[in-house]
Design a protein that fits this description.
5 helices; five-stranded parallel beta sheet; about 45% helix; alpha/beta; Rossmann fold
């Protein structure tokens, strides 16, 4: 599964990349620090999955998630963070799931694996 990791914090991007690269079947094909870089990564790398840190932009839905819908196929999106008051908006915008940043790494792996299994069953 090809993955792009996006978020403002370099340390978080690098930690997620390092963590995921140790898992068989996952390849982080790019990272992005802003929405422009993210759109370029999606266009050039055609990832299966995007891990988007909620800190990427205040207007994550309108400025990032909606423009991603133009890609065919559109990668599945996992938002890291996900304030409870924004959860419904994210899901309505097409986000596959939300994972808490403070949660155990296993919760992120479980979410990714569920997406991978859904993709393989389609």
């Amino acid at each position: 599964m090809y993955i792009v990791v996006a978020g403002k914090q370099r340390a978080l991007r690098n930690a997620l990349k390092g963590f995921l690269q140790t898992r068989p079947g996952y390849e982080v094909v790019g990272t992005a620090a802003d929405k422009e870089e993210l759109l370029i990564q999606v266009e050039t790398k055609s990832p299966d999955l995007l891990l988007l840190d909620e800190d990427l932009t205040v207007l994550l839905i309108e400025e990032v998630i909606v423009p991603l819908q133009r890609f065919d196929p559109c990668p599945k999106i996992v938002v890291l963070g996900g304030r409870p008051e924004s959860r419904k908006k994210y899901l309505d915008a097409g986000v596959a799931t939300l994972v808490g940043k403070a949660g155990p790494p296993k919760s992120l792996l479980t979410a990714i694996e569920e997406i991978r299994l859904q993709r393989n069953n389609v």
